[in-house]
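Hi everyone, sorry if this is the wrong subforum. Our group has a chain we'd like a structural model of before ordering constructs, and none of us has done structure prediction before. Sequence below.
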Amino acid sequence: MNQTKQDRIAQCLERARLLGPLIAEHAAESERNSQLARPVVDAFHEAGLFRVMLPATMGGAELTMTELLQLTEEIARFDGATGWNFAIASGGPVIAAFTSRAAFENIFADPRALIAGSFSPMGNFTVACEGGFRFSGKSTYSSGSAQATWLTASAIEFVDGAPQLVNGIPRIRAGIMPIGKARILDTWTVSGLRGTGSNDVEFNDVFVPTEYTFDFPNPVSTWQKGPAAKIPLMVQLGGSLAAVSLGIARHAIGALKEIAASKVPLGTMASLRDRPLAQLQLGEAEGTRRAARAYLYSNTDEIWHQGERGEPFDPDALVSARLASVTAAKLAARAVDLVYDAAGITSLNTTQPIERCWRDVHAVTQHVTLNTARYEVAGRVLFGLPPGSPLI
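Answer:
Right subforum, don't worry. Here is the predicted structure as tokens:
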């Protein structure tokens, strides 16, 4: 009997919950080694969780964007870095859908296929050649590169040593190449989301067949059908990253509840949970988290329905999508800040989860799709001005 869509997301969520103890057990190891622990990677492969966005005919779950948010949030509540790695890895099929169908099927014929990389073209260049393009440069902040089998990167197209311009804007091409043809650099020395292993990956004169490349930042799939074919790539990728911050906030709030039951702050006779200030901060943190979640989920539902209707995404629609993901991440960070303050000096203890939650959630808000600069672009569009950036 065929699984219904509801069965598939329920099964994915249950698999994630069952992996929760393993994720928590290896979170410190992932952070210490600056990459996702191998037992966690293997467990995700065995559970099929990295392939949830693949078609059912290829063993995937064909999740909607909102369902992917649910799954990402569930994983991130056990560990933010693991949630981030999942968000990136599960998005591989979303990116590869803009290559040819043959390329897509070849990439994911390997049951352990994973795509890492980034779309920043700065300092990168590509030159057309017979049958494809030759790429040189670096894919920066490539989360999950240690376990990836493929690398995505974008670069400015050059002809005769000069960048190609379209209406004064450099033409950018993205490509997907075997990561074995590139070199992972040890560059991920950070405070938050250490376990994501977001190192830079260098590639030099790597040949990428045309069918493994696509225009960027507004690619069009030549074969994909359904709502995802109508939704811009960067809109599809933004929400799941914001969902990581929601999971981190849930983790922090749960940790505060556990600590507050037994902690008696210095200079008092009452437990932390009996203090009015802590009660106020917990209430505000939970309300803030719920507001963030409601905004992100309702907006993502609307994005999906817009894709189902085949409606174009004008700048106002793009701003609406970006505001939801950025604001959700900012509000989730605010919720964790409240928890951090309420827990007092316990929040500094590296053996307690609140300390890592605080670092991780603020790392999330620094991503280019979620940082404060996106508000400026949104404000320009809301004022009726050009966005002033290729990334709304």
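For your construct planning: The chain has a mean pLDDT of 95. The longest strand covers residues 132-142.
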